[in-house]
Amino acid sequence: MVKHEELGKMNYVMHDTTQYDCLFLGSSTTLVNVNPVLFDSLTGAYSFNAGIVMMQVSEMNMLVPKYVNAHGAPKQIFIDCDEATLSRDMGVWNFPKYYPMINDKAIEELVMLEPKLLWGKYLPAIASIYFGEELKNLAFTGLFYDSQKSDYNIPFRGFAGAKKTPTKELPVIETYFKGSERGWQLLEETIKYCKLKNITVNLVVTPRYHYSLPKSSVHFLKRLKQFEVNYGVRFFDYSIDKRFQSRNLFLDRVHLTLSGADYFTEVLAKETFVEKSVEE
To answer: In this structure, how many other beta carbons lie within 10 angstroms of the beta carbon of residue 229?
Structure first.
């Protein structure tokens, strides 16, 4: 279900000025799986979950500089790489959320991926065909949204935990992580920008349930890990971590329940950050 909170979060990321120590960036597997309030209670940091459904690396590459310009550079950024993050074979998910910034040169890369973005500028009548469809009124809202609006309408600290419970058991299947060469290039550009701003970069793959990794996915993960050598980033792969193979932790194969998100956040905090008790 598409909600206007996506516009609010985009606006918050680009225009609010709150300084955070840690920024979590990624798709719904960030939005649902990482609890920044719990993370902060364990680490003493102050963090924000900037996860947006189906976010791709082209969007991350555009958003990170805008976030830094508005909020200042965080000490650490956590980039969540899911199966489609580095893929370039699909358009921009829920693209009308970018209508408020249609004249911004920073989204030229996104327009190349999703030419329909130009509808909001040149053919707003066509853009309105989304009324009542899957995107509901997001196109209309995007066309008339005040990009300087201070009412961001977002979940607290950006975290939207799954409030449903697990359903039936799921069989083991293969999961395919995909990345295009342009996708890898954009990730590299984002990392280089962060390094220039003295931001510690953490590449993260969040837990999956009952997935196995074919050779192509193993190669993908090895290529992610190579960034540790090339750029000094840190890579944390929980894709098939045995600690996260209880059905009760997952809403589906990739999204954790509230208790699952808390458990994963605790593990992430302990393995990526010095706990307050240690500092004290």
So the answer is: 9
DSSP letters, 80-110, are E--TTTB--SS--TTGGGGGGGTT-GGGHHH
Between CA 180 and CA 169 the distance in angstroms is 33
Does residue 103 surpass a pLDDT of 90? no
Average pLDDT over residues 147-172: 76
What global pTM score does this model have?
A: 0.88
Give the range among 28-42, 105-119, 199-213, 264-278 with minimum mean pLDDT.
264-278
Contact 10, 70 (CB under 8 A): no
What contacts 161, CB < 8 A, 6 or more positions away?
Answer: 32, 35, 257, 258, 261
Please provide residue 236's backbone torsions phi and psi, each rounded to the nearest 5 degrees: -125, 110
d(CA 129, CA 207): 37
Q: Residue 179 in contact with residue 84, Cβ under 8 Å?
A: no
The pLDDT value recorded for residue 102 is 79
CATH 3.40.50.1110 fits 5-279, yes or no: yes
